[in-house]
Specification:
The protein has 3 helices and 12 strands, in the order βαββββαβαββββββ. It is an alpha+beta fold. The N and C termini lie far apart (36 Å).
């Protein structure tokens, strides 16, 4: 469950970990009562002709906690399992995620922190989304790679552009 429904009560922290340890580090934090997750996205695999789940931001673990920064740091660094942890991303005056970035989470991710595939069609050379999280956000799509079924969005998150899976309906291919 994304805990963005109480923006004023929770702080968001971003941990940078070695990519192979991303999921195990999240699982460890969850076992210790910490709301931690890595963002996943549905991705079309051309070689297998199917949709698979992959990390949307490899190496990033997101934590939502009511703890202030100092208390969170104490709790994080008191944990025994630190395998893969590189550093915590933070700013001087605020937690690592800005309010706009938290709203992006609310808009695009489901309850399992998954960015689902969107489905659409081409109309006059422009991509129109019929269903999925990108419906209504077509203006943010700057590029569509039809072969790999990936849309590039004009949304920056952690200083990188969002990529999203988009499949054209069969009748429009």
């Amino acid at each position: 469950m994304i805990c963005t429904n109480n923006l004023n009560k929770n702080n968001w922290y971003v941990l940078f970990v070695l990519t192979p340890y991303e999921d195990s580090f999240c699982a460890y934090l969850k076992r210790h009562g910490v709301d931690a997750f890595s963002v996943k996205m549905e991705n079309y695999r051309k070689d297998k002709k199917c949709i698979e789940i992959k990390s949307a931001f490899p190496g990033y673990v997101f934590v939502c906690s009511p703890l202030p920064q100092d208390d969170f740091n104490d709790r994080l660094f008191s944990l025994e399992f630190k395998k893969g942890l590189i550093k915590q991303l933070c700013y001087k005056e605020t937690t690592a995620l800005r309010a706009e970035e938290i709203r992006v989470f609310e808009q695009f991710l489901d309850k399992d922190h998954l960015f689902r595939m969107s489905y659409g069609h081409l109309k006059n050379g422009r991509l129109v989304i019929d269903q999925g999280p990108l419906k209504g956000y077509e203006d943010y799509i700057t590029k569509y790679d039809k072969r790999n079924r990936l849309a590039t969005l004009d949304l920056f998150f952690l200083d990188q552009k969002w990529m999203a899976g988009v499949t054209l309906m069969e009748s429009d291919k």
